[in-house]
Amino acid sequence: MTSGISLFLKGLAMGAANVIPGVSGGTIALITGIYERLINAIKRCDVQAARLLLSRQFSAFWQHVDGQWLVILLGGVAFSIITLARLFEFLLAHHERFTMAFFFGLILLSIVYVAKGVQRWNAASVVSLAIGTIIAVGIATLAPASQNDHMLYVFLCGVLAISSMILPGLSGSFVLILMGNYALVLGAISTVNLAVLIPLAAGCAFGLIAFSHVLSWVFKRHADQTLALMTGFVIGSLVVIWPWKEAITRTVERTGKPPREVVTSYQWFLPDLSSHNTWIAVALMAAGALAIWVMERFAGTRQESGNSA
């Protein structure tokens, strides 16, 4: 029962994280130690799972896809999106700098715990860490491409967007902005444009299954390098989470709906140390770091109790 509640809470955190720019559900899954199991569960939604389902072997299907674990986790994600995500949307709209400061502290200390998962730090691990950091920072500073509604390009957008959503430190919506098709996708959703939605959904389905297989394979064979690479992704995401920045936006027109401002890049600056708001933000950074420390201590205590039982 307690482990189920803990898993549900991790799902809550993953759902809430999706509304924070630069913080993905993948980041939270990695921090809380469920990332590899999540990837393996997604990977099991394969041909064998379809055969079991079609042959009405429901119990075998449920075990094959790690059904109970997935349902509890995704239940937390869904509940969070319906409830807690609204709170974070409000905080981002009215107290963005303070909200980002809390998550900056949380992510900053979590890097230490994620990096501790690397069993052996060697040249390959260090290079993987550097590559992950460079990729994440590079993505955050890229200029958006122009819109392209060609079916194959929209399919590719689906593949890359869903793949980035399950990678720590990367945002699927930000990838769509960089590829120039964020407005196209928003418009297609609002007008139910199947010419865009079908190849996009096909790309998402293909990307989710294929990329989960790739991640599972590399985790098994190159665990340290993969974890180091993902640690780099999380380090690079701090560029987007840095509280003292101004967003550079552009207006996206949406058919049948009001225009929407989307962030295309940022202009960073150092905090004003004479401002009391700066010190409130610093205190919130410390609170975020404390939150991840408490979470890790709780998880460690529970693991020790489980091992001794």
Briefly, what is this?
The chain is mainly α and 309 residues long. The protein contains 15 helices and 2 strands. The protein has one domain (2-308).
Structure commentary:
By secondary structure, the protein is mainly alpha-helical. It has one domain. It is built from 15 helices and 2 strands. It has helices spanning 2-17, 25-31, 35-43, 47-54, 58-64, 67-82, 84-94, 96-115, 123-141, 151-165, 172-178, 182-191, 194-221, 223-241, 276-308; strands at 245-254, 257-268. The protein has a two-stranded antiparallel sheet. A hairpin with a 2-residue loop joins strand 1 and strand 2 (257-268). Helix 10 packs across helix 13 (194-221) and helix 13 (194-221) packs across helix 14 (223-241). The two termini are 16 Å apart. The relative contact order is 0.15. The model is unreliable at 301-309 (pLDDT under 50).
Report the principal-axis shape. globular
Number of helices: 15
Which sequence of strands runs across the widest sheet? 1-2
Mean pLDDT figure: 82
Number of domains: 1
Summarize the biggest pleated sheet.
2 strands, antiparallel
Q: Hey, roughly how much beta strand do the residues contain?
A: 5-15%
The count of β-strands is 2
Report the radius of gyration as a whole number of Å.
Answer: 20 Å
Cα(first) to Cα(last) distance is 16 Å
Order of helices and strands: HHHHHHHHHHHHHHEEH
Oligomer: single chain
Question: Approximately how much helix is present in the residues?
Answer: over 70%
Poorly predicted runs are 301-309
Structural class: mainly alpha
